[in-house]
Amino acid sequence: MPGAHSSFTGLRESLADRQTQSLEIIMQFQITPEYVKKQNRKSTFFALFVAVLAIACVGMLLDAKSLSDMVFPAIGLLLFTPPMLGTYRIIKAGADAYPVLVLDESAGVLSVSCKDVVVTVEIPLLKNLRLQFKSDTLASVIVTTSAGQVMRFEGYESLEVLAAALERLTPAERTTNSKPNRR
Q: Higher pLDDT residue, 52 or 18?
């Protein structure tokens, strides 16, 4: 019966291989809290700068002696108010303002979802995958779709894992690495 044992072992290994191949590898990537804090800090400084400009425009409006003196301050208010409100909404939303990435390696699909919108990209059909490094660490992953859309991913947890998976699934001639310039 030695032959029966070896064929049983072979059958068991074959079934294990099939189960391993049929397992779906789905990874989800979320923005890191540190990145959200950093972006909120930048947004706060921007909002303060724009608020100072808007207050200056209000001051110019109050000091205006004629209707022609009110034109530029009014235009300034119209230009400075929307970015302030948009920045406030981003800061208030926090991590919810950033998309969640879902990578399905078995299907070769990258899904980017933010609130109710989901964009699905087939990885083998990518036009370009660029990995940007800063000080020998991965800073961002830039994906260019065949339709010409550019998506930049930075500040995500396990960004190196995402980059390695995308690099593995993308044809080598469509992958580029941007290393820091050394002088």
A: 52
Q: Is 148 left (phi over 0), alpha (psi -120 to 50) or beta?
A: left
Tokens of 82: 């929307």
Residue 66 has pLDDT above 70, yes or no: yes
Distance of CA 60 to the CA centre of its chain: 40
Element (H, E) at 177: strand 175-178
Q: 3-class DSSP state for residue 136?
A: coil
The secondary structure of the chain in percent helix, strand, coil, rounded to multiples of 5, reads 55, 25, 20
Longest dimension (CA), the chain: 108
Tell me the pLDDT tens digit for each residue of 27-62: 889 999 999 999 999 999 999 999 999 999 999 999
**Confidence (pTM):** 0.68
Helix (H, G, I), strand (E, B) or coil at 109: strand
Q: Who's near 110: CB < 8 A, 6+ residues apart? A: 101, 102, 103, 104, 120, 121, 123, 143, 166
